[in-house]
Amino acid sequence: MRHLTFTDGNQIALLHSGAGFYPALISAIDAARVEIYLETYIFSLDDTGVLVCEALQRAAGRGVVVYVINDWLGTGRENTNKLHLALSAAGVQHRSFNPWFRRGVARSHRKLCVVDRQVAFVGGLNINDDMVSDRDHMTPLPAPRWDFAVSILGPLVQEIYREVQAQWLRVGHMKLKARWRNFKRLRHGHSGPVHDQTQAALVVRDNFRNRRTIQRAYLQALGRARESAFLANPYFAPGRKMRRALEEAAMRGVKVTLLLGVGQFMMQDAVAHSFYPKLLRAGVRIIEYTRTELHAKVAVVDDKWATVGSSNYDGLSLFVNQEANVVVQDPAFAGFLRQEIEAGATQGRVVHLADFMHVPWYKRAAYGAAFLLYRTVIHIITLGKDA
């Protein structure tokens, strides 16, 4: 597992939901002159997806080399086939990650884009309409899905470029010797020049080089927290180390706030509820976001450390899937993101310990059963190595 390599001299802009992300992404694609790499978990051919697809097609039409990877399961077999036909016909090179589970159960949940090695995007947004539910594409949302991404200029773009380029090669049919050369090249990659601007690092999770990098970044930030920690995530089912870090931070006086998504999956909500009483007793503040779907995977600690990316707080993201986050060490950026999380918290319901004092026994039993089932599945998938 690699340590985080921070680079200075980066310009990082926070992009809020689709209204901030998709126009910036399409503008960058339309300005491309040489090369584009784009990775996403879901690439829907809805109104939003068509706009991005057409921008990629235009780029290929003017001679830009365009590489696109989508996850086969996340996008769906039928939609992946349609996407492949549409992109390939325009000269876009397209691959899907792990079709038919040929490489095991892991999925590529990353959302990354690099244009001309000059600008990069990292975040939680898929290529799909943020006014339509992720769970059911026929269900409209009452408000745009609550999510974030960042656009990046500066030395960190080169690190992200190496990562997306390597992923394109991995998804293809690489011989063993080529895979080993690629591994060594990434392992010994150098950082960019140092300037006195925003410090940031790319943190990825996979099942070879970086099995616990994202969880470790969270644990270190929570372990060093002294004043506050604001975390927002749609799926809350972390391992015991993450839960213990949240509890210990709250017990030593850190103001810990969890803003969590609810209502998408009954089983997921039940697992999360099984953790609530202990967290609440430790002093963790829990708020369930209710305005629309919460899809953001963001956190801010002490208004100094912040992260934006694709990793959920569950066993799949922390121990199985491929994920990508950016960690930013900049008070201005962290303070702005914290304000966004606090604004989101005003659109949610505060959970109190008293709410669980009168929960019927059968509901408590259901929460416990959901946790045991979830834990068993994760242990099987990870060969008992989740923590």
UniProtKB/TrEMBL annotation:
Keywords: Cell membrane, Lipid biosynthesis, Lipid metabolism, Membrane, Phospholipid biosynthesis, Phospholipid metabolism, Transferase
GO molecular function: cardiolipin synthase activity
EC identifiers of the protein: 2.7.8.-
Residues at the active site: H109, K111, D116, H295, K297, D302
Primary location class: membrane
Stretches assigned to the PLD phosphodiesterase domain: 104-131, 290-317
Cell membrane is among the record's keywords: yes
Subcellular location: Cell membrane
Catalyzed reaction equations: 2 a 1,2-diacyl-sn-glycero-3-phospho-(1'-sn-glycerol) = a cardiolipin + glycerol
Membrane disposition: Peripheral membrane protein
Record-linked InterPro entries: Cardiolipin_synth_ClsB (IPR030872), PLD-like_dom (IPR025202), PLipase_D/transphosphatidylase (IPR001736)
Annotated function: Catalyzes the phosphatidyl group transfer from one phosphatidylglycerol molecule to another to form cardiolipin (CL) (diphosphatidylglycerol) and glycerol.
Family under the similarity heading: Belongs to the phospholipase D family. Cardiolipin synthase subfamily. ClsB sub-subfamily.
The protein, known as: Cardiolipin synthase B
The species this protein was found in: Herbaspirillum seropedicae (strain SmR1)
Species lineage: Bacteria, Pseudomonadati, Pseudomonadota, Betaproteobacteria, Burkholderiales
Originating gene: clsB
